[in-house]
């Protein structure tokens, strides 16, 4: 019988059970009793001889299911939530087969009651074009062969065939298959399953027939992009599909995409997709490809990217007299939807001013950050904060949930009351990064001995020091050390150092290090293990051989002991008999 078995509340449940024997045959093999497993006692679940003693939750709800002489399957006609977690076991001929002969209670099945039935599965075959033959199969799993589910299939006209198949461990699969002809561009197939007990669940699946598409274009055709600067490209698909909308994909992932539709005159329609592209120097000469996916096939078009390196941002402040020096990186990289820290410091050699108001502005004079938070521009509200201490001449600022168009440039300045302070080298341009950096793993030795202590490092760079990446491993580790190091230039490094002890029986010959970045993006790296596996087998053979030798010695010792004991017993018997005969002779002579 299965160790665990699921059943639907209100439906029936059959726990499959079969038995056999090679010795101690039962006198009455059709005498089958089911019990509830408890630490003490034998609560009855099914016993036709003592029906009145069956516990309340199972009384009147159980029976045997199966016609074979070797079948002990139990039927529960109405499964209730109170049955959840119950462990049951069958006992064959309990009046004649005792627990010393066979411990039936060691083989149990635990009932797991589900509140809701599973969604039926709909499979569609054929029907790629209008007027073609289409076959639809709706199937669901159940544990109640006593009263099988009823299936109704809608959305297709034609003949239907029902099939009920036993899978394993008390699980059946019932399938209704219908065959018809495609008469519309878009079909909605509905499958309703009503289980024993009245619970109904419905699933739907859409099927589209092939329609005609005319052309696909990308605009602008001149694909000039600047490193880290967002540019929108639009892919348009012209087609005549009234109900089907083609799916448009781009070969560049992790970038913002929006889609829409337009209706032209007649039956012509346009489906479009806009991608906000953020390029890098490495993209120069590569293709930006748009692919339209229809039910009847795919079509695509491309443009060749011409990437230009970003130039150092110019000052955007209106002041022309810069009295002080700032130290701001001209360009910094940020991962979208994560955070970025912009390192900033300044020097005021001729005067020392405290309690300055720190300000970061955009070219439109909107405040990316302001000490007075009410002055912060709307789209930056709640996303920027000052990390540095102005009294220590530190103007470092953090931007959270970095958006695609948060490139800047952003420039630093300061104010106190009515006095404004301007600085040289005070502007930064943010280059957007669509995907996080790939973690770097330390190299692994070859032919690692099982049981050896292996130290593995995984490091990753990032720009979000307040929320560093969380590094996880695909293997159980004995010890882990996390360190965070500032690498300069607004880049931090998070390092996870773990101790791994291979045993030679790992399921996979690899170690995967995964970095989970603030904002939800992940990146991983894989290193392959080379662990010696023959040593473990040799050791097991050595243990087995040693055990066999020990057992043979024990058997030989017992044999010699019994033989010596029988010989001593024989000598004693012969000696005793001779002594008695001698005594008798002496008495007779006297």
From TrEMBL:
Entries under SUPFAM superfamilies matching the protein: Immunoglobulin
SMART domains, per the entry: IG
Keywords: Membrane, Transmembrane, Transmembrane helix
Superkingdom field: Eukaryota
Domain Ig-like: from-to ranges: 214-306, 439-530
Transmembrane segments: 541-561
PROSITE patterns referenced in this protein's UniProt entry, alphabetically: IG_LIKE
PANTHER family: MYELIN-ASSOCIATED GLYCOPROTEIN-LIKE-RELATED, SI:CH211-171H4.5-RELATED
Protein's name according to its UniProt entry: Ig-like domain-containing protein
